[in-house]
Specification:
This protein is of the alpha/beta class. It has helices at residues 44-51, 92-103, 108-116, 132-143, 162-179, 190-194, 214-220, 232-241, 264-273, 288-299, and strands at residues 6-15, 18-28, 33-37, 59-64, 67-68, 77-80, 150-154, 182-187, 199-204, 207-213, 224-229, 246-250, 253-257, 278-284. It is elongated. Pfam families: ABC_tran.
Length: 300
């Protein structure tokens, strides 16, 4: 069993007697992209600042890279919180050379991180000529200098256009394999998270109400196969014999509950074989956003 890259136990934090975190527990696997989800004001940014040692928890324990956050070697963690501050009059290489000097890294490190974020050809361009997506990739390059084992990102795609969002998403998704870097990313853009994360944690009311791999979360989402037929009663009887659970909506429509996508040909074949006329079959599986909104309503 690998030690979690981040391990938070019963962490609490209040501001002026107002509790924000109320016994937070987080376990982030190594080599994962962990999406930390929650509505605005739930405490995502507070949690990130605690993980970086910028805020201290009132109680509980926080371990990052197997050490108490107070003893953490900050050079092993890269981070982007809030909007990155870039010096527009410098070139990308000049900008990264500042961090290289501070961290006492080799000159080859600049070339490595520029290649990692696909900015090698733009390295000698002034930052003022960069698109928003390129600026965010440059900020990621800076955070990746020194080859950190953990990257912590707070809403990294905020304000980007679709092309910029895709660029950042693809980069984040590849980091665990390309550079052996685990990524902890907070977001409320659930459709983006769904395309890049391997694990998810949902923050509500100061606590983590759900934590799982995305693969396991998908298995918890109830899918449906809506069928328009000549007789929903006859179709329900046929499918019951075949082992499927159904709910009739109208005399000519019914839903097959929680089928896997690969079962659709079997369902339709059963109906046709028994003489049930099938006019339409529509498969629906909730997106992560729909599932999150549903879980919010259930927990309200």
């Amino acid at each position: 069993m690998h030690t979690p890259i981040i391990h938070v136990q019963n962490a609490t934090k209040s501001f002026s007697a107002l509790p924000v975190l109320k016994g937070l527990n987080i376990s982030v696997p190594q080599r994962s992209v962990y999406a930390f989800l929650g509505n605005n004001g739930e405490g995502k940014s507070t949690t990130i600042r605690m993980l970086l040692g910028l805020l201290r928890a009132d109680s509980g324990s926080i371990q990052v890279l197997g050490k108490d956050v107070a003893q953490l070697d900050k050079r092993q963690v890269g981070a982007i919180i809030d909007a990155p501050v870039l010096y527009a009059h410098l070139t990308a290489r000049e900008y990264l050379s500042i961090t290289r000097s501070i961290k006492n890294l080799s000159k080859s490190e600049i070339a490595r991180v520029l290649e990692l974020v696909s900015l090698t050809k733009a390295g000698n361009r002034k930052i003022s000529t960069f698109s928003l997506g390129m600026k965010q990739r440059l900020a990621l390059a800076q955070a990746l200098m020194g080859d950190p084992k953990l990257l912590i990102l707070d809403e990294p795609t905020n304000g980007l256009d679709p092309q910029g969002m895709q660029e950042i998403r693809e980069l984040i998704k590849q980091l665990p394999e390309q550079s052996d870097t685990s990524v902890f990313v907070s977001s409320h853009l659930l459709d983006e998270v769904e395309k890049m994360a391997s694990h998810v944690g949902i923050l509500r009311g100061g606590k983590l109400v759900l934590e799982s791999s995305l693969e396991h979360a998908y298995k918890q989402m109830t899918s449906t196969l809506k069928l328009d037929v000549c007789s929903s009663q006859k179709a329900a009887e046929v499918l019951k014999v075949a082992g499927y659970q159904t709910v009739q909506e109208t005399p000519s429509s019914l839903n097959v509950l929680n089928p896997v996508f690969e079962q659709i040909p079997d369902v339709t074949a059963c109906l046709i074989k028994k003489g049930v006329q099938l006019f339409q079959a529509v498969y629906h599986k909730p997106t992560l956003e729909q599932w999150f909104l549903s879980s919010n309503k259930q927990g309200a």
